[in-house]
Each structure stands twice: as C-alpha cells, then as structure tokens.
Design a protein that fits this description.
With 352 residues, this protein is an alpha/beta fold. The protein has helices at residues 15-29, 56-65, 81-92, 111-114, 121-128, 137-145, 174-180, 197-210, 225-233, 249-258, 273-280, 305-316, 331-345, and strands at residues 3-7, 34-38, 50-51, 70-75, 97-102, 131-134, 153-155, 184-188, 215-219, 241-245, 261-264, 285-288, 298-300. The chain folds into 2 domains: 3-159 and 331-345, Glycogen Phosphorylase B (Rossmann fold), CATH 3.40.50; 174-316, 3-Layer(aba) Sandwich (Rossmann fold), CATH 3.40.50.2000.
C-alpha cells in the first residue's frame, strides 16, 4: 500500500495539519509509504516526500506522476468550489481509491451547509468518492444531506499529535513571558473572527484582579493579527498579553504544558485537536460549548465574558492536575488504516 495525502502541511500548525502529520507518522511506523502534497500558499523547500506545487497545473502533474494506491484529501474550514473541484479531480485519477476527510466544525451549520442537496455540485462530487470521513456527527449528517450512501460515510474523530521528541528551550519572547507571569492562560489557533479572541483579551482584566501576575499567550496567525494587536495595545494591561504568532509544534506543546489554563472561545467549532492536546499534557481547558467537547473540558456559553472570567478564576484556584502521561490513543488512526485496507480489498465502486 502507498498513500498520498493532500492538504495543509505545517507550518503553520492547526488542527487539520496535526491530523495529517499524525496520520502520516502512524502510517510510516507501519512501514506504509506516505507522501504529502501541500495545497496551501505556505511553502517550504521540498523534501522527505512533501511536495509544494506552485499552481493547479503543478498539482495535477504530481497527481499523475506519483504512484500510490490511496489518495486522501483533507479539507478544513469552508467547502469552497475550488476544494470541491479538487475532490472531483481526485475521484478521476485512475488506479486509486479516493478518500476525503472533512474537518470543518462550522460549515454544516452555515446557511450554505444547511441548504446542501444531492443535486448540488458538491453532492455529485462527494458521491463519486470511495470514502468520506467526518470528524463529528454534524459532518456525517451533512454528507447524508448530499446523498452520500451510508456505507461511504465514516465517523472518525481527530487525533492529537503528541511529539515523541524533547522540546527545545523556549525562544524569546516566550521564555521571558513565562518567567514574569504566573499563572499563564494560553490559546492556540487561527487569528480569525470565529474564535472570539477579543473576548480573551477583555477577560484578562478580571483575571488579573484575582491573580495580579497572570498573563495571556496567544499562539497562531491569521487575518485579524493587525487588528488584534491594536486592540491589545489599547488595554492598560497590554504588556501582560503576548501575541506570539506561529511557533514550531514542539514548542507549542511545551507552552501548553507550562500554562495553567487553555482557552478555546468560538462562535462555531469542531472537535478541536488543540483541546485534546492540552488535555493529554494535563492542562485544563475552558471552551465554548459546541456539544462535542471531550468530557474533561469546562464548558461556557457562547460570547459570555462574565462566565468565562468565572470559569478561569475558579479553575486557577484549583491545583493543576498532573500530566496523565499515558500513551496516546491511536484507535482513530487505526480506523483510517482499516478503511484504507477495506477499500483496497474490495471492488472499485461503480461510480468510477
């Protein structure tokens, strides 16, 4: 078996990237070759079977040149026409089984997602694929609205990427910030409107009244970075908020481990990988209730700064739980591999 994954490859490091990297590492540990084609604007030098095509033509050349049995496309965020067309191309590549994982937590609840029908272009394309993976039940329902047969719909929850390397020491300004602040709140994710980052900035005022040495670290990048920096600078406590940008995943995980609470405030969200990573290293998580959080997460209502402050202060008053230290559960990665084997063992669908 040979696998080719298409999707966002880090950096930057987000939930979809973590799933893709975790699956690749798992497959290679099983002795299964797994190459990656990055489909974002973020590029690095090619190497270790990670490819960075410059345009759609270059991507198509790679699809036709590389040899593989499974072609696995990862989609996060909104289901754009460009991504649907890419899924269609994947379904046309001869001699392969086509798989798509849809990682979006919010798209199925949008007006466009609610209006999805079998006669749409997305419905036509998704029914051509050999298998569709959804990371939460809402996505599986979305596939059903598109007319995807039940036997092609697979619910497989996301996997937290746990590094098997020792993290290097914190670079500046992270190192100095941790030295000056205790306790530390942290958030990790895209700097986009759906994550209500202003709520986290605002709540620090109340938290610092209860814990005068507290601070907030925000790791990530996005379209709101400049606006968010201006908002932070307008606060009298601006020096106690570090908008750090993207950092390597090893350092991100160590920062989560060293922090006292992780925040995940959202207007809409899926089963966020960063939440599972925080729980794995023993950092308490406070998150907006989206009806699919892990049991250990403390839930708050959407857009409620008062309840967020209450949850943070109460959580900080309790001892931080010890790091579980158990080996990560790889059952979801095994489920993907089992699906690959099932597809290669069966006959190619009549939709090709």
């Amino acid at each position: 078996m040979k696998v080719l994954q298409l999707g966002p490859y880090p950096p930057p490091h987000g939930g979809v990237q973590s799933n893709l990297v975790a699956l690749r590492r798992f497959l290679r540990k099983q002795g299964i070759p797994c190459a990656v084609i990055n489909i974002t604007r973020h590029r690095k030098p090619e190497g270790d079977e990670v490819y960075y095509p410059r345009n759609a033509f270059g991507l198509l050349q790679l699809l036709l040149r590389l040899r593989y049995d499974i072609l696995h496309l990862h989609i996060g965020g909104m289901l754009t026409r460009r991504l649907v067309r890419l899924a269609y191309v994947c379904s046309l590549v001869p001699g392969t089984r086509s798989v798509v994982t849809f990682h979006s937590g919010g798209y199925p609840s949008t007006l466009e997602g609610q209006q999805a029908r079998p006669k749409s272009f997305a419905g036509f394309v998704f029914r051509r694929l050999d298998a569709l993976i959804g990371v939460n039940p809402e996505i599986i329902d979305f596939f059903a609205r598109l007319g995807v047969p039940a036997e092609h719909r697979h619910l497989i929850y996301p996997h937290a990427l746990v590094e098997d390397q020792t993290a290097p020491s914190f670079p500046e300004p992270l190192n100095s910030f941790f030295e000056r602040h205790r306790p530390v709140l942290i958030s990790v994710g895209l700097l986009e409107s759906e994550y209500q980052l202003n709520l986290q900035v605002d709540v620090l005022e109340s938290v610092r009244r209860a814990f005068p040495r507290s601070g907030l670290i925000m790791i990530g990048s996005g379209s709101l970075e400049s606006e968010l920096r201006r908002t932070i600078q307008s606060k009298p406590y601006a020096e106690h908020i570090l908008l750090n940008g993207d950092v390597p995943h090893l350092i991100t995980m160590e920062a989560i481990r060293e922090s006292h609470v992780m925040l995940r405030t959202t207007l809409y969200d899926g089963d966020a990988v960063s939440v599972r990573e925080a729980l794995y290293v023993g950092t308490p998580v406070i998150a907006t209730d989206n009806r699919m959080r892990p049991a250990a997460v403390r839930l708050i209502p959407k857009s409620d700064v008062t309840m967020l402050a209450k949850a943070i202060i109460e959580t900080l008053a309790e001892p931080k739980p010890p790091c579980p230290g158990a080996a990560p559960d790889e059952s979801n990665l095994r489920a993907v591999l089992d699906l690959y084997r099932e597809l290669l063992g069966g006959n190619r669908g009549s939709n090709h």
